[in-house]
Amino acid sequence: MNIEAPSKIEQVVTQLFGSRALQYLQNKRRGGDSNDKGNAYELHYAVYELTKLATEFFENAVNAKIESQTLTFVDDLVVTWGSDTAKEKKSHSQLKNTQGLKWGSLEEVGSLAFDFLSQKRLNDSLKIETKGLVLVTSQSEVARDLKANMPTDIKSFSQVLDFSPDTVSQALEYTEHRENLKMICPFDEIDKLEAVHATIMGAWISMGKSCFVSDLIAKARTSNPCYIRPEDDGILDPKCEQLLNAIPKFEFSIEGGFFSWTYGNGLEEGVFSENNLSERFAKFQQWIISKQPKTFEDIEGALL
């Protein structure tokens, strides 16, 4: 019978914390996989984190990897930044949705305090920079108690987050989340932002809750090309641009990868229904070049 060799993580955990801690981690991982937590609360938190990472991606071309239920102490959501030329960095989130939650003892295998301290020690041993360890709870009173009673040994790298939405509309009550969704979507209407939130959630689930941000955005865009911006704003065909510029009282711009337009000093305005890299927008440009319209009335129907 073939026995699988221990992974590097398993070897380091055994060296640092002993075989009992490794058994605890393995049981924790199996429990997470079999339970497949994935309830609404945890999925909304994943989308909350994913939109922050998407904003990083669009603004600074930072392509982080995000995973759920990895073999590690703080394991519900793990984000990894880094490359061959940069030191690897990680952030970890643990989600708890129960009353009466306590940190417990730093030495007690299985306690929150043990998990958080062990995670930092494990990352240090692997030469991984810890960007933060976050304990997420949906109970406001529990969050206040955990913040007030956080063990001194983990305070410098740990935080408690009160996060409680069970629905898309509740998730959008968080200002930071709404602003991050607007980085992904060219529209700021609530119903469209809710659609983007749901699209990202669907992409996250379909990708097995483990992916690079760029791949998740591409998957979401395939599902919803009308609301998900492309990585590149794209440029207009010069012939198309020249023809559009010649139409009286018609103005246009490229915003967040979508073609925005106004007519008659704002008398009418809109955004093309798909992004500038879509097949439909390419056909729109070809139509403009072919028809050579002269007035807004000539193109009005094609803009819808």
Describe this structure in words.
Residues 33-38 have low confidence and may be disordered. This protein is 47% helix and 18% strand. It has helices spanning 8-17, 19-35, 40-60, 112-125, 140-148, 168-171, 175-184, 190-206, 213-223, 238-245, 279-291, 296-303; strands spanning 65-67, 77-83, 86-96, 129-137, 158-162, 210-212, 250-255, 258-263, 268-271. The chain has a six-stranded mixed β-sheet with strand order 5-4-3-2-1-6, with helices on both faces. It has a three-stranded antiparallel β-sheet with strand order 7-8-9, with no helix packed on it.
Report the uncertain regions. 33-38
Number of strands: 9
Through-space gap between termini:
64 Å
Spatial sequence of strands, sheet with the most strands: 5-4-3-2-1-6
Instruction: Determine the strand fraction and express it as a percent band.
Output: 15-25%
Structural class: alpha+beta
Order of helices and strands: HHHEEEHEHEHHHEHHEEEHH
Query: With helices defined by DSSP (H or I, 4 residues minimum), what is the helix count?
Result: 12
Helix content: 40-55%
Q: Report the major sheet.
A: 6 strands, mixed
Total tally of structural domains: 2
- The overall average pLDDT, rounded, is 89
Spatial extent as radius of gyration? 24 Å
Shape: elongated
